[in-house]
Amino acid sequence: MPIRTKSGKTSVPTTDTADRAGDTLDRYDVAILRELQADARLSNAELATRIGLSAAPTWRRVKWLETQGYITGYRAEIDRRKIGLGVLAFVRVDAERHNAEATQALEAAIRELPEVVACHYISGTGTFELQVMATDLDAFARWATQTLFKLPHVKDVQTSFSLGEVKAGAALPLGHLDGGS
Fold first, then answer.
1. Which H helix or E strand runs over 102?
2. Parallel, antiparallel, or unpaired for β 87-95 and 128-134?
3. pTM of this prediction?
């Protein structure tokens, strides 16, 4: 909607990132996040059409979301079974907690392991919960004995294996950002 300024000129308010106060996401930002989670390969023109803005402000908003750290990357989702990774293990690792340095050393060692696709610092029993991929049970057993058990400050390990995937690679819920729409 055009606005008349004091000088008598008419201007159209922008819906661009330059007018923002702080880190607040508006409905266009949330729509961008929702669309890119569903299909990160959308062209900017198609994304703009879907969210109801023109291409230029859509592009600037995407760049702003990237710069601000809301969008941290774009990647392909690969079917692990198609590339021979038939085993998904959930490994709870308990660290010897003599001091912070010991836990940090274990954490750093875990980060270097390509078989570990996710690692969380957890509450309750254990220190870390790992998601580990392997080609088969024999490969996992070799990895556990030759690598995992030799990491610094490992006190205990408990492993559970996925028997079937119910849900994976889901988009993050965004309803709390825009009132549930």
1. helix 100-111
2. antiparallel
3. 0.78
